[in-house]
Amino acid sequence: MQPRKYYPIARQGFSLVELLVVLAFIATAAAILTPSVADSRKGLEITNTTDIISDSIRRARQYARAENRVFEVRFLRYGSPGNFTKDNNFRALGTYRILPDGSAQQVDKIEAFPGLAIIGASPKHSSLIVSGRRGEVAIRNVTGYIIKAPYAAVGFLPSGGTTLPAGRKHYLTVWDETHALPLEESELPPPNFATIQIDALTGGTQIFRPEL
User: Fold this and answer.
1) Per-residue buried b or exposed e for 120-134, using 16+ beta carbons within 10 Å of the residue's own CB
2) Helix or strand or coil: residue 3?
3) d(CA 17, CA 15)
4) Domain span at residue 181?
5) What is the mean pLDDT of each run of 10 residues along the chain (212 residues)?
6) In CATH, what number is assigned to the domain containing residue 118?
7) What DSSP string runs through 84-107?
8) Are the C-beta atoms of 92 and 187 separated by less than 8 Å?
9) In a domain, 28, yes or no
């Protein structure tokens, strides 16, 4: 009896043309999906920034009532994390206790906004930058140096109200700083933005987002 012979099964691979077609399909899909992913990321950063601002305002109101003194939320202007300058955007905040002698004591850590989210500095988009109390605060940057960061602040009273002028609308608009138009030239905010309105009498907030 002769031994059975086994013949290898031929395995057919992809041709070069098929590989090129698959690569072209992947490249096309990536080109379509990449802007959507980037827009989703920017939208999430804007949402997270509005949450940071709203939560800080809520905590400042609670602190003011609990301690029967004024607390401020200060919106800080600087160039990039750890590199504070006077010529860039509002991209962080801090909460401060106002002492009887008028000095301020930092309560919570300075909180930077995620990614490239900023508060638009134009009065057309963020009236609180103009109507809020302005000054400079000492900040320790990531290299350990103490520097001065400009700020615009809203104060919260033990009654729950604010130090903002009554009878006006006070708001902040948040968007991604990669928006094409300079803040001073843009009559309208970019399509993806959020506006936080603060009631001067009650300290309450409302958030407005466009339908994307």
Assistant:
1) bbbeebbbbbebbee
2) coil
3) 5
4) 44-208
5) 56 62 63 58 88 94 95 84 54 92 90 87 84 84 69 93 88 81 58 89 88 58
6) 3.55.40.10
7) --SSS-EEEEEEEEEPTTS-EEE-
8) no
9) no
